[in-house]
Every structure is written in C-alpha cells, then in structure tokens.
Design a protein that fits this description.
Layout (H helix, E strand, L loop, with lengths): L4 H17 L11 E5 L12 E6 L4 E8 L6 E4 L4 E2 L8 E11 L8 E7 L24 H6 L1 H13 L7 E7 L9 E2 L2 E2 L7 E2 L4 H4 L23 H10 L16 E7 L8 H12 L15 E4 L8 H12 L3 E4 L1
Parallel strand pairs: 8-12, 8-13, 11-12, 13-14
Antiparallel strand pairs: 1-2, 2-5, 3-4, 3-6, 6-7, 9-10
Helix pairs in contact: 6-7
Length: 330
C-alpha cells in the first residue's frame, strides 16, 4: 500500500520534533573527542580565557595544558575547564595546547586554540596633576598607571574613533556631600548631579548645616575626617573629574561617569542607619525622605568604614544588590 505524501511529511516532522526535544540533534552534535571552545576574546583582551570540553562517553581524570609552546605541561584536575594567563599579554598571537587523561591513564592527542591580542596606545591626558612634575617632585596620578587605566583609556578612545558610543553611568558617592568644583563642573560639561543630591544626616550638630534631612547634599566643610576635609568632593573627583581639560586631575571615567552626591557623613561621622538610608535613596528604594533621584545609580561607592553593620544595613545591601547595582566599599 502506498503511503500518501502528506503522511510522510507529517512523519518526518514528528521525527524531527522527537530528536530535537530528546536532545538528539544529529546535525549539531560534536563527534567524541576533546575540544578547546571559543573564548569570546575581545579585540583588546590582554588576558584571554580558553574553555575546553570533552564530548563522548570517556571519563576524564585530569587535563594538562601548555601555553605558548607544546610540551611544557601543567596538569589540573578533571573538574577544571578553563585557563587564563596570570599576567596580561602584549600584542601578538598566543596558542594553548591541551590534552585529556582518561580513567585508564592514557593522554589524548593534543588539541590547540590560538588567540590574537591587539593593543592600542595608552591615552595620557593633559590634566595638570595627572603627569609627573620633576621640578616639584609631584608624582602624578601614579595609582592610575599601576591599575593600567591609561591602557584602558586608549582602548576606549579606539572604540570611540571606530564609531562605538559609550553610555553614561551614574555613580552614587555616599560620603560628606559635595562642593562645587571647576574640575567637576565646567559650563556645559557637568559630571556632578548636584540637583539630585540628598542629605540624610538627621542630627543638626553632626550635619553642621543648621538643618536635618533635606535635598541639599552640599558639604558643610567637615566630614569627620578633620577640619574642611571635603572628602566627598575628593572621592567624586577621583571618579568623575573632567579628563583632558588641562585642569586638576583626571577622573577614571574618561568624562562618562556622573556622580550622584548623597550626604551621610557629617561633623561626627555618620550612623549605619543614615548610611543605609543614603544607599536606599541612591538605588531608588523606599527611604525616610520619601524621595527618589531622577537617575538612580548603577554603582554605589562607600569610601568609609565603621564598627559593623546591623540588620537594617544588611537588608539594605541585599535589596540593592538584588537590583543588580554594584556596591563598592573601602
């Protein structure tokens, strides 16, 4: 008996569905063996990560890899499935060689994967205090050099030149507040969201500004770190000072970070409750003021320390991180 064409089509479709949902994708599955997978290497990634996997029924008790030249093996447990160089790499092409050890104790054939690392010229801005001044023994912003920030800036500059648009990121600085400064505010260039700032210091004596909680995050001049410390402004500058403007220092954000100043430290420091309330405000969560910034923070910076947290503070941090907001503390 002949089977109608339409029945054959239905049977083929049903077979395809069965194979798909049973995980038996005959076309896309790999042959048994050891593979070094794609590592998602970015053009300027100086520490690429190689991932590997074994396909097939064989159990693996160990792997060994050799970086740069085949034969100088480093053995790792069979649960380890990735390798990343300890130190950043210079421009060039690098190869990872890999073998797998079966339960029987035999090493597999060698497989390999190469990665090409490109670099761009570090960008060193013209800010007055960024560079070393041998005449005055000024060391410049040496910490940025240690962290590799000029190399990162060079990469970001390259991306901008090739048409990539960098998005602005709001960083809340929970600290002593802010003071107006030409290296944060310069006409149309303004990296300080002072209009969205808030003061969560309740005690009038500690606030030193003749009021309690209000929408004015202006630094009263003493943040508990010594007279006229202007600590909040110093932290804001390190993050978002206007870069390559020939004035002051260079902020790490290359003029794409905006600082939301939230005041929680006054003349006598601050309480964990006040700091927690400032964090909640910056994150757009319910707070005693009943107010919310027009731009909530993606990152919250806490350059402060204390004797310990309480339940309210810990619950606040849990709620903030649950929103995907990064909290950085000293």
């Amino acid at each position: 008996m002949k089977t109608p064409a339409r029945i054959l089509i239905v049977l083929l479709m049903a077979l395809t569905l069965v194979l798909t949902f049973s995980g038996c994708n005959l076309v896309l599955s790999r042959a048994p063996g050891l593979y070094v997978l794609e590592n998602g290497l970015g053009e300027f990634e100086s520490r690429p990560t190689w991932f590997w996997e074994v396909y097939g029924p064989d159990l693996v008790q160990a792997f060994r890899y050799s970086f740069g030249s085949e034969g100088d093996w480093t053995e790792v447990d069979g649960e380890i499935r990735r390798f990343r160089p300890v130190n950043p790499l210079g421009a060039g092409t690098y190869t990872l060689y890999l073998q797998a050890k079966s339960i029987s104790g035999l090493w597999s054939r060698t497989v390999s994967k190469t990665a090409t690392v490109a670099t761009s010229e570090p960008f060193r801005p013209n800010d007055l205090y960024f560079n070393v001044d041998e005449d005055t023994d000024w060391p410049g912003q040496w910490a940025l050099e240690v962290m590799g920030i000029p190399a990162l800036w060079g990469h970001l500059k390259h991306l901008e030149e090739t048409g990539t648009t960098r998005q602005e990121v709001v960083v809340a600085v929970v600290d002593t507040g802010y003071t107006e400064h030409p290296d944060l505010q310069d006409g149309p260039l303004d990296n300080l969201l002072e209009e969205n700032g808030y003061d969560f210091i309740e005690d009038i004596v500690s606030a030193a500004d003749d009021d309690g909680i209000d929408d004015d995050a202006l630094d009263a001049g003493d943040g508990g770190f010594g007279e006229n410390s202007w600590h909040g402004t110093a932290v804001a500058g390190a993050i978002a000072a206007l870069t390559n403007n020939g004035v002051g220092i260079a902020g790490i954000g290359l003029s794409k970070l905006k600082v939301l100043p939230v005041r929680a430290l006054g003349y006598e420091g601050g309480t964990t409750e006040e700091i927690a309330n400032a964090i909640r405000y910056a994150a757009g969560l319910a707070n005693p003021a009943g107010e919310y910034p027009s731009k909530t923070a993606k990152i919250i910076n806490l350059s402060l320390g204390g004797g310990g947290a309480d339940t309210y503070f810990e619950e606040t941090l849990a709620a903030v991180t649950a929103k995907g907001i990064i909290v950085v503390a000293s």
